[in-house]
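Try this one yourself first.
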């Protein structure tokens, strides 16, 4: 596993103000990576936000996927509709800085959706500081809480067992792997795309 913290060197990118990465072509998107302020995933704000997202989306992933698709690429004029999670492979929604209004250039967020891992929010570590990543995770968590509240208040049916992902179980196994590796002194990233 690549240790992102060790790759971020001293020079700062003139466009983003973030540290340059000497292996830019290899690192694309990650759910979490260590920073000077937040070196341990298990104790990080990011872990709490990611775990909170999986908890809030459990049972309403088809609603959340529909909402995200409509949010970033409007397809229906309704506040609530469902989209099945892909049974094989995964669907991806790329979100660039124009949509989020962060002032950065390029694709900032990749939302991956699959039956195996649920809905994952991955960020471009070259354009996102940990603070931007956590701010966006907080916003997505608020959306998930609002969507859950709406579904429950209106008594809409929750996702059936065959519609649900194995995302919560996948996250638990990943957290267990982090615990094992942190005991061994390893640094890891979460959901790194190479």
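Now uncover the answer:
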């Amino acid at each position: 596993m690549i240790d992102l913290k060790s790759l971020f060197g001293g020079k700062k990118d003139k466009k983003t103000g973030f540290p340059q990465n000497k292996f830019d072509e290899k690192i694309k998107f990650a759910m979490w990576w260590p920073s000077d302020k937040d070196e341990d995933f298990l104790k990080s704000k990011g872990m709490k936000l990611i775990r909170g997202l999986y908890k809030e989306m459990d049972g309403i992933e088809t609603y959340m996927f529909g909402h995200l698709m409509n949010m970033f690429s409007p397809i229906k004029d309704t506040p609530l509709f469902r989209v099945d999670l892909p049974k094989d492979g995964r669907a991806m929604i790329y979100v660039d800085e124009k949509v989020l209004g962060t002032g950065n250039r390029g694709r900032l967020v990749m939302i991956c959706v699959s039956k195996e891992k649920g809905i994952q929010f991955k960020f471009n570590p070259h354009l996102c500081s940990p603070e931007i990543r956590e701010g966006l995770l907080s916003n997505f968590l608020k959306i998930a809480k609002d969507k859950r509240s709406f579904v429950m208040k209106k008594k809409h049916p929750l996702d059936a067992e065959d519609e649900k992902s194995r995302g919560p179980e996948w996250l638990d196994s990943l957290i267990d792997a982090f615990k094992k590796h942190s005991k061994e002194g390893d640094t890891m990233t979460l959901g790194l795309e190479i």
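Discussion: The helical segments are 4-7, 45-57, 61-72, 97-100, 130-153, 167-183. The two ends are 10 Å apart (CA to CA).
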